[in-house]
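User: Assemble these into one structure.

Assistant: Restating your components, then the assembled model:
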Amino acid sequence: MDVLYFAWVRERIGVPREVVETSAATVMELVEELRAREERYAVAFEDISALRVALDQELSEFDAPLAGVREVAFFPPMTGG
Amino acid sequence: MDVLYFAWVRERIGVPREVVETSAATVMELVEELRAREERYAVAFEDISALRVALDQELSEFDAPLAGVREVAFFPPMTGG
Amino acid sequence: MRISVQEQAFDPGAELTSFSAGHRNLGAVVTFTGIVRDLADGSMDVMEIEHYPGMTEKAITAIAQDAMARFRLGDVLVIHRYGRLHPSDMIMMVATAARHRKDAFDAASFLMDYLKSRAPFWKREVSSKGAAWVAATDEDEAALERW
Amino acid sequence: MRISVQEQAFDPGAELTSFSAGHRNLGAVVTFTGIVRDLADGSMDVMEIEHYPGMTEKAITAIAQDAMARFRLGDVLVIHRYGRLHPSDMIMMVATAARHRKDAFDAASFLMDYLKSRAPFWKREVSSKGAAWVAATDEDEAALERW
C-alpha cells in the first residue's frame, strides 16, 4: 500500500511517500502500526484530531476500512484558496 | 425651479426638463399643480407609487418641503447594475 | 476609490489587472461584471441606458463610501456605462479589495444591491418588436433589506 | 467549466476577459482573486504552496461540479497555483457566470469556502525569522456550514 504524507506530517516523518506492508483493517489500525514503528511516526501521529486522511485521493475518516485501498494519504487540515 | 423628468416620465411629459414657477410648499403640492395643467402631466403622475423623486439630486419623499430646493426630478424606480 | 460614469466601453480584464496590482496587504479581490443579456427570443437590437448626470456620480460615490464604512476594505472601483449597448456588451463593473474574502464578497454584493435600486439609471430594451423600459423588481428592492 | 492547477503565474485580467466574452444570455460574472499577503511586519520572503497531485484536480472538479448543481450557473473557472510565491503574487482565482447576480455571487463564495478547507493545498510562510505552516482556522471550517 502506498502511504503519502504532506506538509508538516511529511516533515516529521521525513519522506513524502513510502510503501507499507500492512494487514490493518482500518485507517486507525494502520496509524497504530506506524506509531509503534519509530519515534518520528509517534510524533507525527500524536494528535489524530489535527490530521486528515484521504483514501485513494478521497477525503475519508480514521475508522474507514482499508480493504481494496491502494493509496492512503495523511496531512494536516487543508489551507487552499 | 428646474423640474427634470427621466425614462417613461420624460416620454409621457415630452420634455426632459423645464422651468416651473410655483409656490408649492411640498413635492406633492407641485405634483397636484402639474396634474392640473395638462393631460400629459395627469397621465405621467397618475400613480405616484410608481414614481420616485429627487430634490437637488438626493432621493427624497413626496411629502418633503420644497423650500430652498432648486432642482426637482421625477422618475420611475431605478434599474442600475 | 474610483468611480466612473461613462459612455465609452471599458475592459473588465484590464480594470481587474490594474485594480489588483501591487497589493501586499490585501489578500482578496472580488469583481462583478454586468453584461447586457439578450431577450429570451434573441431579438434585442439595443439596450438604451439613460441616467441623471450629476446625481449619478453623487449617488454612486455615496454608495461606495457607505461600503468603505461598513466593510473592512482597502479599495473600491465602480464603473457604469450609459448610452446605447448591445447584447454581450459590458454594462458595469464593481471591484473590491480587502484583507479577507468575506469583506470583499459582502462589499461587492452590497454595492450591486444598492447600484441596482439606488443609482439613477433606467434601461430600455429595443427590439424589432418594439421598445420597453425595464421594470424594477420587488426582489431587487427586497435585496436592500439584508444590509 | 475549466479547472487548472498550475505552478506558473496567470493573469486574472486576461482570464476575466476570456471568461466573460461572448455571453449573450449570462448577465453576471463574479471573480475572486486571491493574492499572497505579506506578514504583519513585512518580512515574508516566500510562500510555499504544497499540494497533492492527482487528488487536487479531482477535489476541485468535484467542488466545481457541486457548484454547477447547486446554483444556476452558465460557467465556472478555477485556477490555483502551487510552488513558490511572493507577496502580491496571485495565488488563485475563481470565476462564475450566471443569468442573475445572486447565483454568480453565491457560487463564487461557495467555491472559495470549499477550496479553502477541502482542496489539498498547504501553505508555508518563509521569512528571515523562520518558516511556519499556515494553520486552518475554525472560522474557515465554520464557513462550510452555511451551504
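The CA atoms of residues 33 and 93 of chain C lie 4 Å apart.
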